[in-house]
């Protein structure tokens, strides 16, 4: 069932509801641009596809498991590009804050589109593999894979639009975001900051009030209630704040009535809805598509569950699209909103190119240095990324390389894939140099907050962009946007500053190296933030990692990084 024009949408939903009451399973979606079908005052761009699409099924089958003889990931790496520049984002933010200050709107959910080109051989099997990767990156929630023929929808949305069953309608708006911390202490602090943030709570309560009003259109008198407010929920890359708003629906309420009351969800428009959507139309240059619409299932008997399709990839021809956005209120700031967008897209970056967990160790005369510390670190990384981890297989792989290389110095790479497959590789290790030269990066390292910095994996494109271009330079010394020294591309750094050996703390954005941890434990170094301007006072430098140990270093010059 397909609707291309606004006047076709409500009849389609009524037909879907009737099919479900007759025992069928109905799976499909509405585009954001279907909104005028329910209220002509809701302003949208011209749709880039069907306003509504549903497949009708007689029975439901179990989701097919991946065949063991097939590779888990069978798609080319996707290089996601934003159609919105940072200056364009800042200009839109300024306009939004002006409109909010003028009282035109209270809140606007501002979004933009990311786009990637698909590989020539990207087909159904690869699309399913990408969906599996997206589910690993964003597990749980309200996931849906919908193949509409010329268009595939890969949604791993954590946000419930509505669940309607037995006359009870539950909505769960998701508004308020904080990046996850990379250890227990930082993660707990991030959740507490979100829970107590006046800005995030205001953003959430505005949407709650909007949905209370929307639900009242179809609710039995006095049945609208908010049983849960400001709940913080952990997702793979961010903390999200949600609230529950529910009601008892009136007798005779149809699926079309529910959509007419609620669509689009207030969490992806803003408040007031009509004014916010008018602002969205003015600032966003193109249609949102299925992003910010609704994807869901109506089961036999008429119960319905739909998500708000955030964290959703749409495949169309040789292109992939994914929307990213955030709610803007009076106290929002461009820098904070931009950082929130980067946190939200982390699931996409994690899923869009296969990677393995990695530990690099020193094998000296048949024994692996710091073996248990390396195993503990890769175990934590596996938990973070949702990878299976086979400790017994890892120990067996390491024992094998030790038996095969009982003499000399070796470099051992231990790798683990998403399914728990483990392998170990050994190669001869050169003698350590007495002194190495480091080049100071000319530009800030923009990825210091990335999980692919805080955890060691084979995904290294961000480091490779800063790799030395001459053999004379051993490695590059990196610094973040705040002008704080972080690490080198292949190890940590220690600096003799004001008579003490110091190393940058983890919150500056760096890998917690095993060699670095040993130096801290032994009291050889202490943690201290080092700024670029402090380098003039540094008397000595050292490159530090578990493989090579402590190597004296000198700083030579600045390096211009290539584009990642």
Structure description:
The chain is an alpha+beta fold. The chain folds into three domains: 61-351, Anthranilate synthase; 357-428, Aminotransferase class 4, branched-chain amino acid transferase, N-terminal domain (D-amino Acid Aminotransferase, Chain A, domain 1), CATH 3.30.470; 435-559, D-amino Acid Aminotransferase, Chain A, domain 2 (Alpha-Beta Barrel). It is built from 14 helices and 29 strands. The strands form four sheets. Strands 1, 2, 3, 8, 9, 10, 11, 12, 14 and 15 form a ten-stranded antiparallel sheet that branches. β6 and β7 (151-157) form a beta hairpin. α1 (6-21) crosses α6 (255-262). It is elongated and about 80 Å long. The two termini are 44 Å apart.
Give me the secondary-structure topology.
Layout: E1 2-3, H1 6-21, E2 25-30, E3 52-57, E4 81-82, H2 86-101, E5 107-117, H3 124-137, E6 142-147, E7 151-157, E8 160-165, E9 168-171, E10 174-179, H4 184-196, H5 198-215, E11 225-234, E12 238-248, H6 255-262, E13 270-271, H7 273-283, E14 294-298, E15 304-307, E16 312-316, E17 319-328, H8 334-344, H9 346-351, E18 357-364, E19 367-368, H10 371-385, H11 391-404, E20 409-416, E21 422-428, E22 435-441, H12 451-454, H13 461-464, E23 475-479, E24 485-488, E25 492-497, E26 500-503, H14 514-521, E27 526-527, E28 538-545, E29 549-559
Parallel strand pairs: 22-23, 22-29, 26-27
Antiparallel strand pairs: 1-3, 2-3, 2-14, 4-5, 5-13, 5-17, 6-7, 7-16, 8-9, 8-15, 9-12, 10-12, 11-12, 14-15, 16-17, 18-19, 18-20, 20-21, 23-24, 25-26, 25-28, 28-29
Helix pairs in contact: 1-6
């Amino acid at each position: 069932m397909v609707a291309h024009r606004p006047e076709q949408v409500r009849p389609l939903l009524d037909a879907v509801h009737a099919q479900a009451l007759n025992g069928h399973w109905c799976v499909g979606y509405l585009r954001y641009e279907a909104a005028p079908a329910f209220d002509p005052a809701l302003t949208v761009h011209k749709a880039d596809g069907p306003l509504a699409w549903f497949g009708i099924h007689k029975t439901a089958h179990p989701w097919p498991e991946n065949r063991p003889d097939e590779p888990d990931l069978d798609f080319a790496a996707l290089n996601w590009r934003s159609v919105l520049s940072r200056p364009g984002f800042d200009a839109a933010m300024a306009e939004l804050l002006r409109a909010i200050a003028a009282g035109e709107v209270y809140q606007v959910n501002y979004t933009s589109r990311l786009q990637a080109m698909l590989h020539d051989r990207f087909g159904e099997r690869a699309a399913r593999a990408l969906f599996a990767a997206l589910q690993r990156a964003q597990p749980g929630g309200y996931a849906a894979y919908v193949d509409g023929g010329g268009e595939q929808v890969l949604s791993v949305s954590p946000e419930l639009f509505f669940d309607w069953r037995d006359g009870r309608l539950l909505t769960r708006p998701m508004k308020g975001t904080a990046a996850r911390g990379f250890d227990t202490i930082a993660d707990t602090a991030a959740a507490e900051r979100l829970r107590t943030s006046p800005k995030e709570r205001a953003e959430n309560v505005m949407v709650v009030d909007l949905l209370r009003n929307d639900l009242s259109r179809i609710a039995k008198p006095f049945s609208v209630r908010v049983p849960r407010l400001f709940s913080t929920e952990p997702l793979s890359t961010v903390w999200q704040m949600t609230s529950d708003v529910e009601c008892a629906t009136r007798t005779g309420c149809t699926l079309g009535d529910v959509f007419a009351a609620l669509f689009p969800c207030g969490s992806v428009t803003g408040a007031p809805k009509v004014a916010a959507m008018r602002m969205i139309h003015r600032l966003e240059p193109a249609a949102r598509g299925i992003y910010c619409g609704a994807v869901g299932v109506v089961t036999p008997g008429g119960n319905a569950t739909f998500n708000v399709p955030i964290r959703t990839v749409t495949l169309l021809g040789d292109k992939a699209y994914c929307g990213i956005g955030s709610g803007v209120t009076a106290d929002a700031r461009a820098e904070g909103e931009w950082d929130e967008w980067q946190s939200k897209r982390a699931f996409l970056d994690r899923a869009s190119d296969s990677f393995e967990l990695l530990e690099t160790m020193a094998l000296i005369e048949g024994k692996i240095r710091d073996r248990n510390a390396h195993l503990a670190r890769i175990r934590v990384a596996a938990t973070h990324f949702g990878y299976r981890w086979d400790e017994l297989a890892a120990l067996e792989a390491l024992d094998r390389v030790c038996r095969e290389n009982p003499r000399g110095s070796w470099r051992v790479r231990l790798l683990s894939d998403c399914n728990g497959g483990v392998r170990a590789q050994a190669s001869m290790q050169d003698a350590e140099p007495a002194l190495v030269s480091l080049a100071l990066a000319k530009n800030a390292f923009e990825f210091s907050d990335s999980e692919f910095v805080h955890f060691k994996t084979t995904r290294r494109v961000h480091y490779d962009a800063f790799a030395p271009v001459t053999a004379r330079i051993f490695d590059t010394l990196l610094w973040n946007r705040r002008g704080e020294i972080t690490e080198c591309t292949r190890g940590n750094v220690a600096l003799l500053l004001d008579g003490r050996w110091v190393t940058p703390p983890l919150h500056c954005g760096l890998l917690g190296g095993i060699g670095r941890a040993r130096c801290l434990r032994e009291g050889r170094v202490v943690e201290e933030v080092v700024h670029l301007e402090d380098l003039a006072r540094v008397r000595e430098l050292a490159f530090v990692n578990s493989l090579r140990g402590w190597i004296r270093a000198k700083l030579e010059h600045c390096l211009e990084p290539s584009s990642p």
